Task: structure prediction
Amino acid sequence: PDKRVETLPAAVAEARTAIPDLRLVILGTGPSTPQVRAEVDRVGGAEWTEFPGFVSDAELDTLLHGALCLINPSRREGYGLVVVEANAHGTPVVLVADEGNAATELVDDGVNGIVAPRTSPTDLARAIRAVADGGDDLRRSARAWYDTAVGTRTIRRTVEGILSALQLPTSPAPRIMKEDTP
Result:
């Protein structure tokens, strides 16, 4: 339920008014799959929606590389690996601002994706259109973001940043005393 995938069909239907050839590809399956399928039917999206389920890594790479964007309307993400994976392919992301969604911290609006304020069809459709309007320039900047992030958004850099922000007092390194032996 936290993934809120059921919000996507209505958003894509609305975005299709400006981007008529837009398609929706939903990967994986889960407890909300029946609800998602019902939403696809409700908005008349059967012709432009695919449900391949779980796919191989090679097929995932192909899909990510060819996608306009990756949309993850989740309310709760611990890190947001999908942002990094999509941007590695030069694919911008669309996320939703939510207190529990740490993935939004990885998005620089207009650089590697867009953060929609809510999951309403209008807000998500607006974000999708913004990605489409960004075109190849946004794809290039998403890939450039990834290239930079590989070196700067590491665990080591994160820990260094935290320690620096804490401004802990420094003390001399502990000394090890060695006892003389005959």
The chain has one domain: 5-165.
